[in-house]
Every structure is written in C-alpha cells, then in structure tokens.
C-alpha cells in the first residue's frame, strides 16, 4: 500500500498529530494517508492534509521513503516537506496536534518505522527558511 505523510513546517517548527483511530491510537505521527488509484503522491498528500487538518498545503521536497508493516499490511510511506499559510484546525483524524521544534520529536511516541523520517526532519528542517510571500 502506498502512503504519504506531510512534514508541515512553519517558523522552524513541525506539526505532529496524535492518532485517534482503532490502530495505533495515541501514537504521534506526521499527518497523511493512502494514495488512491490514479492519484500522484503530491495530490494524495494535499487531499489528506485538507481532509485531516482543514488546510490548503503546498507539497514540497520529498524527504524519504520508508517501508513498514502494520497488521499484515506492507506499507511504502513517502514523506514530504509541506507548507501552508493556514493553521491546522478541525482535527478529524487526531485527538490533538502540536507544533514542536524538530529536536523535540524524539520525546514523542512515534511508530518505530518513523525513525528515518524523524532523522531526515532533524537534518533538513533547521536549514530551511520560510518561503517568500
């Protein structure tokens, strides 16, 4: 299964959400979801961020792709940097959301498979400057 997640960045901080679902309830994650048939990764991620966070996001550079297995499903997770002028609200897939400094990510309970994404965020996000408006 192809899955996308967005590392939403603003003012040097990244947005994370605490899952509210049957699977991995309470675990922190970068928002995203499944790529539907005929959808590009970027289109799927923009759609998922709109559905989950109610934001129009610009999908940027691909950070990495990881392989994961959850409940018998083989997942290929594509992580992208994202930016939005809007702030996440009306969280429908998460019980809470937070803006955190990249260094703080290791203090949150993510899925073990997310470790390479977190490592990439730690390498890349501190080097970013905000897009020109």
Write the layout of secondary structure elements.
Layout: E1 2-10, E2 13-19, E3 28-29, E4 32-34, H1 41-53, E5 58-70, E6 73-83, E7 94-100, H2 115-124
Parallel strand pairs: 1-6
Antiparallel strand pairs: 1-2, 1-4, 2-3, 2-7, 5-6
Write up what this structure looks like:
The chain has 133 residues and is of the alpha+beta class. The protein has one domain (2-126): Nucleoside Triphosphate Pyrophosphohydrolase (Alpha-Beta Complex). 17% of the residues lie in helices and 39% in strands. The protein contains 2 helices and 7 strands. It has helices at residues 41-53, 115-124, and strands at residues 2-10, 13-19, 28-29, 32-34, 58-70, 73-83, 94-100. Strands 1, 2, 3, 4, 5, 6 and 7 form a 7-stranded mixed sheet that branches. Strand 2 and strand 3 (28-29) form a beta hairpin. It starts with a strand and ends in a 9-residue tail after the last helix.
């Amino acid at each position: 299964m192809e899955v996308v997640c967005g590392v939403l960045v603003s003012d040097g901080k990244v947005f994370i959400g605490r899952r509210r679902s049957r699977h991995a309830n309470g675990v922190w994650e970068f928002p995203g979801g499944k790529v539907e048939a005929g959808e590009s990764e970027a289109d799927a991620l923009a759609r998922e961020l709109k559905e989950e966070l109610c934001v129009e996001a610009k999908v940027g550079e691909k950070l990495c792709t990881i392989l994961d297995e959850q409940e018998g499903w083989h997942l290929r997770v594509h992580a992208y940097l994202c930016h939005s002028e809007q702030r996440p609200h009306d969280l429908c897939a998460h019980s809470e959301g937070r803006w955190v400094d990249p260094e703080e990510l290791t203090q949150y309970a993510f899925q073990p498979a997310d470790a390479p994404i977190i490592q990439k965020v730690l390498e890349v996000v501190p080097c970013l400057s905000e897009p020109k408006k």
